[in-house]
Amino acid sequence: MPPARAAPEAAVDVRSLAAGVLLGVSLAGCAPPEPVRIGFIGGLSGRVSDLASEGKDGALLAVEQANAAGGVNGRPVELLVRDDAQDPEVARQVTGELIQAGVQIIVGPMTSAVAEAIIPLANQAGVVLVSPTVTSTRFSGQDDHFFRVVSTTREYASAAALFLRRTRGAERAALILDQDNAAYTEDWARQFIQAFEASGGESLPVERFSSAREVSLMPQVTRMLDAKPDLVVIVAGSVDAARLAQMVRRRAPLISLLIGDWAATERFVELGGLAVEGLYAPQYFSRDDVSPRYRAFRREYEERFGVAPGFASVAGYDAARVALDALALPGGTLRERLKAQRVFDGVQQRIEFDEYGDAARPVRLTVVRSRRFVPIDPEAGEGMR
């Protein structure tokens, strides 16, 4: 009887199995690396969406540039964008989503009211927040996971108060603020009033409104102007600030106007039209920067998004670059890396964190001329043409 041939067939099966295993290992070795995920949180819908939209575009450009250069340590970068709707409850929800997605660093938030809502969640989860635009001093000097690439309300409001008082001779200031972002607006108003009164000015009773609820602002405007101020200070987002400026100028066309840095977006100038000509705004961003670094950034931003960058675009880009640099650094947690590195390059200025993650940027006063923000000559006190 001839011998059975089952053994050779079994040997063939074993060899095939081994080859399959080796092929699987080879293919696994060729698989693309897992992406590094960065979060973005901002109010991308509603009345203040221009701020977050600019910030998101700046962050997206930074991520796209990083990927074009090979990613972070050879891994591609993915930006997970979430809309907080400028609502604290929504903000907490989307922050939780990003934490569940494994994000370890988030660019945002864009407003102080949202920061107040989500900083505790970030601290609890050990997730780092790098805010482009949150300025309230409520978050200063805290040993937490919150970092920011801008100065605080103290620098912006004080610089504006001293300029209007000493250079423009303002004596009686009437303020109106949006209480829906009270973490920012109340703080900004307090810093302004302290500096204005310390330099000999008088602050009139502060008017408040809710951007989410109120239809008419005429009662507040009437009370402000009936008090006979020579300066009206509007601390609100771009849409409401433009609307208030128009209402004030209809009744008092020659009165001095000042807005907080929150409103100083490109949309504000578009919405305000002729009513905001001659209006003042403090900000760190220079639209007339001719440095090679800024010119390259502006060119790439315009090519990518079809519009010129605003201050939040630059701030969003800077915050994302800080996040990307932190991810590329060796050793320790992201928070520890940021605290150890401390100094990072920005588009226009260097970003230097103190021991609490707060940064200081030079603040300049600008004035609206021909529908654009123009830096003020500190000696002449006028917009440089």
From TrEMBL:
Keyword Lyase assigned: no
GO biological process: amino acid transport
UniProt keyword terms in alphabetical order: Amino-acid transport, Signal, Transport
Record SUPFAM superfamilies: Periplasmic binding protein-like I
InterPro entries to which the protein is assigned, alphabetical: BCAA_transport, Leu-bd, Leu_Ile_Val-bd, Peripla_BP_I
Stretch forming the signal peptide: none
Keyword Kinase listed: no
UniProt domain Leucine-binding protein: residue ranges: 35-369
PANTHER family recorded: LEUCINE-SPECIFIC-BINDING PROTEIN, PERIPLASMIC BINDING PROTEIN OF ABC TRANSPORTER FOR NATURAL AMINO ACIDS
Family of the protein in this entry: Belongs to the leucine-binding protein family.
Name the UniProt record assigns to this protein: ABC transporter substrate-binding protein
Native organism: Pseudothauera nasutitermitis
